[in-house]
């Protein structure tokens, strides 16, 4: 399984940026950025837009760089199972695929 925020990590690698560089950009501690990169803390919307601007990524690609929960979905795979609309007893909660 890939690490959380794989696309963001790739952008950082392409630009020779470290988590400390992102911390300076966002006026956060390096530990705070590490916590966000490893899903121990949530990104704030302003932080996400600042990162997109840093790497010249269009804002409509926010969900690609910052997918829900940091998970990257591989082509042909779904993050959640799709329920059959004809099912008489659908589960009460979505379950990870």
Question: How would you describe the overall organization of this protein?
Answer:
- The protein has 97 residues and is mainly alpha-helical.
- It contains five helices and no strands.
- Helix 2 crosses helix 3.
- The longest helix is centred in the middle third of the chain and has 10 residues, at 45-54.
- The mean pLDDT is 85.
Summarize the structure.
This protein is mainly α and 97 residues long.
List keywords for this structure.
40% helix; 97 residues; 0% strand
Secondary-structure topology with pairs:
Elements: H1 6-14, H2 19-26, H3 30-37, H4 45-54, H5 62-65
Helix pairs in contact: 2-3
What oligomeric assembly is this protein in? Answer: single chain
Helix and strand content put the structural class at mainly alpha
- How many β-strand stretches? 0
Which regions contain 5 or more consecutive residues with pLDDT less than 50?
A: none
Major β-sheet profile: none
Shape: globular
Average pLDDT reading: 85
